Amino acid sequence: QVQLVESGGGLVQAGGSLRLSCAVSGSVFSINDMGWYRQAPGKQRELVASITTSRTTNYADSVKGRFTISRDNAKNTVYLQMSSLKPEDTAVYYCNVYLTVIGPRWGQGTQVTISS
To answer: What are the backbone angles phi and psi of residue 89, rounded to the nearest 5°?
Structure first.
């Protein structure tokens, strides 16, 4: 009944920017932590950024200073603003939210490809 719909992925040249969105719909009673993960071919899925209910943020060292995670609680949406993109940022990006009682849920993934 709960769905996470991602959007905003695509192809962009190195140095460019993209903004990913993940909207939660359905029976949502309470959303706690939200985050973005990515998985490149042949690599494990890694945490890119997370944001708490109080909007405390954490970032992977590889994206610190370039990516910004934010949330709009009224819209049940988490965003990832990506700037100064590099070819090594190429991956499938997945949003993740932790819902009270239900637990963690994943988005469908969106492809981000950075050309050199």
So the answer is: -80, -10
